[in-house]
Amino acid sequence: MNKAFLPEDALENLDEPYVAPIVSMEKNYMTPAGAARLRSEFDNLKFKERPEVVKVVEWAAGNGDRSENGDYLYGKRRLREIDKRLQYLSKRLESLEVIDPSSIVSDQVRFGATVKIRDEDDREKSYSIVGIDEADAANGRISWVSPVAQALLKGRVGDYVQVRAPKGLQEIEIVAIEYLQVA
Question: Of 63, 134, 150, 156, which alpha carbon lies 20 to 30 A from 118's?
């Protein structure tokens, strides 16, 4: 993580520099729900939205002067955006490996686990460890490569783990581990 993204007072509390985990692009781990959302987005862009934009661009191109034709210019720009996103999604789908959390039986935190933790202020939170493309911290879904998930992985109920946060090193306790279907 770039130090520019941390408050200056947080830099004083860091014992060691933060080192982001290396993410292998060989495998793109996802839950079944996340994989379905990714495929759905790909299919919607490729088979619905892109053909509609192509029709608009063809119609606009037939109207004459393209340099002042807003429909044509916007359509061409939107096609480039769609094609770029389709290329990205295609690569992510090629390396996709679906892991169903409901089939995992383990007393350790692994990919797909929903982990209930208690922080130093005695507040409880719940996180589901999911794939990079399906992470949504506001809804409690964190990427398996995030600092919190990395600290939790392989932990067991009752374990205390340390997480590097902007406020400095924090100790959290693993209260519960469940393997449910992540929505």
Answer: 134
What is the DSSP secondary structure assignment for residue 40, as one 8-state letter?
H
pTM for the structure as a whole: 0.73
Angle of the 70-94 helix axis to the 50-61 helix axis, nearest 10: 150
Rounded Cα distance, 90 and 149, in Å: 26
pLDDT in tens, 57-108: 998 888 877 777 788 889 999 999 999 999 999 999 999 999 998 888 889 9
In angstroms, the CA 91 to CA 111 distance is 21
